[in-house]
C-alpha cells in the first residue's frame, strides 16, 4: 500500500491500542495447538510495530495477557509466560536499536519471577528511547487498575494530603497506569469479537473502536493501515455538533 497517498500522515492517531485476539482459533484452523497460534502472533506484533513506526504512531499498546487469562488451562498459561520471557529476551536489542521504549501496564508483581525480571530489564534498557513507545499490558485488567487507583486516592485522603473535594478527573487519571500518556484515539480488536474484555475502560472514554474479523496471527501491516484510514474518515465530535467542528 502506498501510505503516502492513502494515509493523511498529519492526522495519524498518537496512541493505538490493540486487543490481539484469535490466536487459538487461528491455530485450530491449521490443525495445530493453541500455543502455535500464540507464537505466530508474535510475528504479527513485529509487523504492527513496524507499520505503526512508519506512519508515526507514538504509543502502541498491546493487550498481551489479561487478569482473566490465568483461568486458562495451566499448560497454556505456562506456555504463554515462556513465550513472553523468550520473546522479550530475543527482541530487546532490536527494539533498542529501533528506538523503541518498552513500558508495561498491569500487576507485574503477579507474574512469574523470570518473566518479571526479563520485562524489567528490557524496560530499563530501552528507557531513553523515544521513536515509539510500546506498552505491554501484562496481567492487566481495567477493574484491577481502577481498584488500585481508588486505594491510592483513599490513602491520600486518610493521610490528609487531599480531601474528597480534591478528587478530580485529573487526579484519578494520574493514579492510572497510563499517566502522562494520551488516551488511545483508536482501539483495534481482531477476530470478530466486539468487546473490551476489561481493557482500558477509563482511557477509552472517547476512543474510536475498529473491529476486524482478521485473526491476530494474520494481522499484517496493511491491516493496521486500513484501520488508520477508517479512523481518519470518522468525525470525532466529543459531544459537539458537526457544524461546530469546521
Ligand atoms: C489472544 O488469542 C491471545 C491471548 C488472549 C493471550 P486467544 O488465545 O484468545 O485466541 P482465541 O480467542 O481463543 O481464538
Ligand atoms: C482478551 O482476549 C485478552 C487479550 C487479548 C490478552 P480474550 O480472548 O482473553 O478475551 P475474552 O475472554 O474472549 O473476552
Ligand atoms: Mg480470545
The whole-angstrom Rg is 19 Å
CATH superfamily: Decaprenyl diphosphate synthase-like
Helix content: 40-55%
Mean pLDDT: 97
Helical stretch tally: 8
Overall outline:
globular
Number of domains: 1
Provide the CATH architecture: 3-Layer(aba) Sandwich
Main-sheet strand order equals 3-4-2-1-5-6
Note the run of SSEs as H and E: HEHHEHEHEHHEEH
Strand composition percent:
5-15%
Structure description:
The protein is α/β, with parallel strands linked by helices and 246 residues long. It has a single domain (11-141, 180-234), classed as 3-Layer(aba) Sandwich (Undecaprenyl pyrophosphate synthetase). It is built from eight helices and six strands. The chain has helices spanning 3-6, 23-29, 34-55, 74-97, 113-125, 142-158, 169-175, 221-232; strands spanning 15-19, 59-66, 100-105, 132-140, 186-189, 208-211. The protein has a six-stranded parallel beta sheet with strand order 3-4-2-1-5-6, with helices on both faces. Helix 5 links the parallel strand 3 and strand 4 (132-140). Helix 4 (74-97) packs parallel to helix 5 (113-125). The chain is globular and about 55 Å long. The model has no long low-confidence stretch (mean pLDDT 97). Bound molecules: 3-methylbut-3-enyl trihydrogen diphosphate (IPE) (2 copies) and magnesium ion. Residues 20-25, 65, 69, 80, 191, 216 line the site of one 3-methylbut-3-enyl trihydrogen diphosphate.
